[in-house]
Design a protein that fits this description.
Number of strands: 8
Radius of gyration: 17 Å
Largest sheet: 8 strands, parallel
Structural class: alpha/beta
Strand content: 5-15%
Shape: globular
Helix content: 40-55%
Strand order of the largest sheet: 1-2-3-4-5-6-7-8
Length: 268
């Protein structure tokens, strides 16, 4: 069984301590390791993971290029880069630079990561539609943080209602909803998003869901569009893998969640 982890974050050595301190305070949660490449690889070996998606988020448009320069510089056969992109990057850099960066991402990465809370946008904001249109056109998947964000309580910028509007507007976009489609909003996700044309990643959520609720997810959404993610460095990959391996589902469906499904998304 090949295991691919769809949700991880690492930082450059020169900023990693600053990022760690900031995020631990924001989330009131200690990281399991310093989030650098070597530590992620150790955790992957511990869990039997062959490859991992790595991503970083640009909170401002002027950070996109430098973050991607670093991300693309990590040439490792076990890493699957998901690039940084700000939804309003075109407004910051201009249409030509926006399209050029997306073409660069298409050549160097496998998708992008968007974080509505950190990037301060609502997923259904029409200003982001030009990005979604290009993602759909280029066939680039996007991982969205979905649901409650513990670091910034308040109105949820990626609620199921807002996500549903995006899915209806861009039905061919490869939309990956992190945290089972909506952290701490799983009942609403089950009602409004389960069964739709989107993927759910299991990061930071599947172990927190009540078993009967998870069974309803499997029944309504099926097993072809659920992908394993650990959310390293906030969680330990091995613990997340073992939880899925111990679920009362068929071995075929465990394999789909742990590796087969994400291969379809990234065409590998």
């Amino acid at each position: 069984m090949e295991i691919i982890d769809s949700h991880n974050h690492i930082w450059p050595e020169k900023v990693v301590h600053k990022a760690k301190d900031y995020l631990e305070k924001a989330f009131n949660h200690k990281m399991v390791d310093l989030p650098v490449a070597d530590n992620l690889l150790k955790r992957m070996d511990e869990a039997g993971i062959s490859k991992s998606v790595i991503s970083s988020v640009a909170s401002r448009g002027d950070q996109v290029n430098s973050i991607n320069n670093w991300l693309f510089s990590i040439k490792h056969e076990r890493f699957i880069p998901f690039a940084s992109m700000h939804p309003f990057y075109g407004e910051f850099a201009g249409k030509s630079a926006f399209e050029n960066e997306l073409q660069r991402i298409k050549g160097e990465a496998f998708g992008i990561k968007l974080q509505p809370e950190f990037q301060n946008f609502y997923v259904d904001d029409e200003r982001a539609f030009s990005l979604y249109e290009k993602l759909q056109e280029l066939g680039l998947p996007a991982i969205f943080h979905c649901g409650v964000e513990l670091s910034s309580p308040g109105e949820v910028k990626s609620s199921p209602d807002r996500i549903l509007k995006v899915l209806e507007k861009f039905p061919e976009m490869k939309f990956i909803g992190a945290h089972m489609g909506g952290f701490l909003m799983w009942e609403e996700v089950l009602e409004k998003l389960a069964g739709k044309n989107m993927y759910f990643d299991t990061s930071d959520s599947i172990r927190a869901m009540k078993p009967e609720l998870l069974d309803k997810f499997f029944e309504k959404h099926g097993f072809d569009k659920i992908i394993y993610g650990s959310d390293f460095p906030m969680q330990i990959p091995k613990e997340e893998v073992n939880f899925i391996k111990n679920l009362n589902i068929s071995e075929e469906n465990k394999q789909k969640i742990l590796g087969i499904n994400i291969k379809k998304i990234i065409n590998k």
